[in-house]
Amino acid sequence: MRTEPAITTVVFDYGGVLTTPGRTAVESWARAEGIRSESFSAVLREWVGRNAPDDTPIHLLETGELSLAEFDGMLAERLLRVDGRRVVAEGLLARLFSFMEPDEEMMRLVTALRDSGTRTGLLSNSWGNSYPWQRLGPLFDQAIVSGEVGLRKPDPRIYHLALRRLDTPPERTLFVDDVRANIAAAEEIGMHTILHQDAKRTRTRLTELIPDLDAPDPQE
Fold it and tell me: Cis bond leading into 57, ω under 30°?
């Protein structure tokens, strides 16, 4: 009976996987800004939805072709406040990302992988946000950020770039992301995948795929 090759490398998305879920952060930000959430949802559908063209402001921001200041201005123009006042453009996304905290259970899971000898990578579509590299740096062998390389998920080229930098074949690599389109693209090139929903379920699936992993069990 043919056996699958062992997984030796695990690659993680950042926002929504190693942090507060994106939806939770957006909801907190919208309340704090007084933004009508349906106006932000409409922008997301148009700029990053399934039928969105390749050159939307979000796509250009993620590949580094649009500056954060320019994007903040474009987004602010499209958002509506509950009180009818204009949304303040300056620092708009920075204020959103202030509500995105590290998921400590996931951080411990990455640490457990490192301690077990598994190689780890970070593969993130950046919205011009800063990353806590002082904390993240020691956890990953390689970090690929879309705005720095001019490519974005789910473009298969960014997955191949990550595999080259990590010096790992797709069949020995596991990718963890919370976006189905990104997961599907990784599967297309032969990577194992986990669609992240929460730390507990991701840990359970990881221990099934990597039996030697001694990972802490997230609290209920």
Answer: no
In degrees, rounded to 5, the angle at the alpha carbon of residue 53 between the alpha carbons of residues 49 and 58 is 65
Q: How far apart are CA 152 and CA 48, in angstroms?
A: 12
What CA–CA distance (Å, rounded) separates 210 from 97? 32
Q: Going by C-beta distance under 8 Å and a sequence separation of 6 or more, which residues neighbour residue 164?
A: none
In this structure, what are the phi and psi dihedrals at residue 93, rounded to the nearest 5 degrees? -70, -35
Q: Which tokens is 167 given?
A: 């010096």
- In contact, 100 and 14? CB cutoff 8 Å: no
Extract long-range pairs of 177-184: CB within 8 Å, 24+ residues apart. 177/12, 177/13, 177/17, 177/123, 177/153, 178/13, 178/16, 178/17, 178/21, 178/22, 179/13, 179/16, 179/153, 179/154, 181/50, 181/153, 181/154, 182/13, 182/153, 182/154, 184/154
Per-residue tens of pLDDT for the chain, all 220 residues: 455 678 999 999 999 999 999 899 999 999 999 999 999 999 999 999 888 888 999 999 999 999 999 999 999 999 999 999 999 999 999 999 999 999 999 999 999 999 999 999 999 999 988 899 999 999 999 999 999 999 999 999 999 999 999 999 999 999 999 999 999 999 999 999 999 999 999 999 999 998 877 766 655 4
Question: pTM of the predicted model, to two decimals?
Answer: 0.92
Q: Measured at the alpha carbon of residue 189, what is the angle toward residues 186 and 191, in degrees to the nearest 5?
A: 55
